Amino acid sequence: MKSEGIIKKLKSMHNPKNIEGMARFGISSENTLGVSMPVIRKMGREIGKNHELANELWASGIHEARILAGLIADPMFLTKKQMDEWAEEFDSWDVCDQVCMNLFDRTPFAYAKAKEWTGRNEEFVKRAGFALMASLAVHDKNASDDAFITLLPLIQRESRDERNFVKKAVNWALRQIGKRNLALNREAVKTAKEIAKIDSRAAQWIAQDALRELTDKKTLARTKERGAKMRVKR
Questions:
Q1: Could you tell me if 78 and 105 are in contact, meaning their C-beta atoms sit under 8 angstroms apart?
Q2: Which top CATH class is 81-234?
Q3: Which of 14, 70, 73, 194 could bridge 54 with an S-S bond, Cβ 3.0-4.6 Å?
Q4: Residue 102 φ/ψ, nearest 5 degrees
Q5: pLDDT of 62-105, one tens digit each?
Q6: Nearest 10 degrees: CA dihedral of 190, 165, 137, 94?
């Protein structure tokens, strides 16, 4: 399948009503067709891994084509340079998160890039750093607790960022790390309490929201179960 045919198919599903709905959730309307995620995922499964095709789809600049590119790109062919280039072109939180969850977190550079990008100033590059942390906490079943404990100071450091798409990603990363197992839950709760001391509206929101979930009895029960399953798989 060629990129021209895929883009033509995506354009045939152009849905202005969906674009309006997406905009209400803060998703960019620029170069957006309004194609639903289930349809894009289905296309990704049908196409399979094809890194060259993924590069062509990314180059189109079309919102949905870029999400599809993240689904079919091969993480083993992805370089640090290409990760930087794609991250610097993120212009919407959903493209950022989908690419991090479906592609970037499967590369050998995921932890290094998560740490590096959280120090960047660009809104969506910084978000990508925290989206990577959250994705790794869910997907990397074999990682040690230390791999995530080293990320917590970065979460605390950037909790002052008032930008909506950054602070929500900071919160997301903190919560996902804290839901990985009970040991990390304790560390994440400790970090959230330190964040709560910071004189910042963003930090206060991040801390309160994270503590609400991470100290909930049902969350703790699921976290205990999840941690036990990960130990069995190792």
A1: no
A2: mainly alpha
A3: 73
A4: -100, -15
A5: 999 999 999 999 999 999 999 999 999 999 999 999 999 999 99
A6: 160
**Under DSSP, is residue 116 helix (H, G, I), strand (E, B) or coil?**
helix
Q: What is the pTM of this model?
A: 0.94
Q: What is the CA radius of gyration of the chain?
A: 18
> What would the two tokens of residue 41 be?
């995922």
Q: What is the pLDDT of residues 100-123, one digit of tens each?
A: 999 999 999 999 999 999 999 999
Average pLDDT over residues 45-55: 97
Q: How many CB atoms lie within 10 A of CB 229?
A: 11
Domain parsing of the chain, residue ranges: 1-73, 81-234
DSSP character at residue 158: G
Distance CA 51, CA 73 (A): 4
> CB-hemisphere CA count at 13 Å for 60?
24
Longest dimension (CA), the chain: 54
Give the number of other CB atoms < 10 A from CB of residue 148.
Answer: 25
